[in-house]
Design brief:
The chain is mainly β. The protein has one helix spanning 68-76; strands at 2-3, 12-13, 26-30, 36-41, 48-53, 59-65, 82-90, 93-101. It has a domain at 2-70.
Length: 117
């Protein structure tokens, strides 16, 4: 989320350094004078909703919902896949990919493969 603050000609990214591993897809809802905003993070991690102070460098005031209960259910009660994200270089291009491994993955076994492009 980028914003151009009054008195500044350049835009400033408000979410680039916040929860980088968890929040790459964000949206924001600003107060009337843009002094505060609610940041909604939609992943790739669990959704996270925070109240932010935008007077000066953006800083977190309060976590509104961190989905800790959901995280506990997903890690203790349900078997979720393991996700690996990385890049590979092909023909001079860095290509991003994601692999999902089944719960209790054993690399010595053979598994069916599904590729989505």
């Amino acid at each position: 989320i980028s914003i151009s603050k009054s008195g500044h000609s350049a835009t400033e990214c408000l979410t680039c350094s916040l929860y980088q591993d968890r929040c790459q897809y964000n949206s924001a809802y600003f107060s009337l004078n843009a002094s505060f905003f609610r940041m909604d993070c939609y992943g790739p991690g669990l959704p996270l909703f925070t109240l932010m102070d935008n007077r000066g460098p953006a800083k977190e005031i309060q976590v509104l919902e961190d989905n800790k209960k959901l995280e506990k259910i997903l890690t203790t009660e349900l078997l979720m896949p393991t996700i690996k994200r990385a890049t590979m270089k092909i023909a001079g291009f860095n290509l991003w990919y994601q692999m999902m491994f089944p719960p209790n993955f054993d690399s010595s076994k053979k598994y069916p493969l599904f590729i989505q492009v």
